[in-house]
Amino acid sequence: MTDHDLNRRIDAIWRMESARVIATLARMLRDVGLAEDIAQDALVTALEKWPVDGIPDNPGAWLVTTARRRAIDRIRHGRMADQKHLQIAYELEYEQQERHEAEQASLDDPIGDDLLRLVFVACHPVLSREARVALTLRLLGGLTTAEIARAFLAAEPTIAQRIVRAKRTLSEAEVAFEVPRDEELNARLASVLEVIYLIFNEGYSATAGDDWLRPALCEEALRLGRILAGLMPAEDEVHGLVALMEIQASRSQARTSADGEPILLMDQDRARWDQLLIRRGLTALEQAERIATARNIERGPYTLQAAIAACHARAVTADDTDWAAISALYAELARQAPSPVVELNRAVAIAMHDGPEAGLDHANKIADEPVLKHYHLLPSVRGDLLFRLGRHDEAREEFERAAELTRNSRERALLLARAAQCHVDT
Length: 426
Known about the structure:
Structural class: mainly alpha
Helix content: over 70%
Order of helices and strands: HHHHHHHHHHEHHHHHHHHHEH
Strand order of the largest sheet: 1-2
Mean pLDDT: 86
Number of strands: 2
């Protein structure tokens, strides 16, 4: 094996194991920042030893054991050797002896309580949305600061500072390394689901840059969602979010041309949709709906959005789409989670079911909402509906405004092409 191949394999192992190593240390040290530092020390040791000794049979167990020893050494001999941390060090040693066999068995389980605790800490509402996203990708995704910066087209120092501040905030707020209970669980779970979906959406429709899609972010969000579903199998909205992401991700190959140009949903070659992802999504949706029915509760917002996505997935052709069902689902979503963005999507469904005039009327009702003032999809939708009504001059103005507002170069080119089409068809 070449050095390059070995380093790639070690990198892949780290991506799979780092969250579990950090989670194990964070439970013991009560400090996420310190846990990540020591986990990185263990990785450095692996990079030094594995090329010489070979990769161990159970690399995850090796990393955890090495990290434990590093934790004890660092606490005892470092600047943190106060009474509190020395006591932690003794506890670590005791646990290492008393629980060695149990730990080895648990390391074969890819998910567990420590990992679930880490999810809730990284997504804690005490942090800003941007900080939660960056910290989640760092701690749970194993992404480097540079990789996160590239994914979000941000400066690397900005992301680094965001992560440092997030860890400091968690420490200063003395956030407990635990899964919340009862009423607090629902509020905190909403934050976790929001973070995962934010990551997915940035990959599915990049807000800025030269690429329409960033598949790596979609894959990371799906991985996190699937892990969460395994950790919390009785939560309907967890399965609802997974269903939504699976079905949306199924369209990825059909969403761009060979040159990377965007292809809108109704124009996509549905033969290129990934049927395996669709089946997985529909199964997750059934699970979400089954849980909601058993608990005698309404379908939640993620489950409703997954049901909308399922309507598209079940349609063999664009003309087969059940727009009546989609319109009804959006009405229910707007009742449960009212927002101008939901209403804008509802306007599209109304237009497809009742005609562009009805859709435009609905879009116009929300046109003055402050949150939509700089939202490029409002003029984009209005442009499409005006074009379908033959009001091409007005449509061109809307498309041009949408092109000015978007920060994604691929989307801007698409919108300007649509604006030019208004000239041709006038």
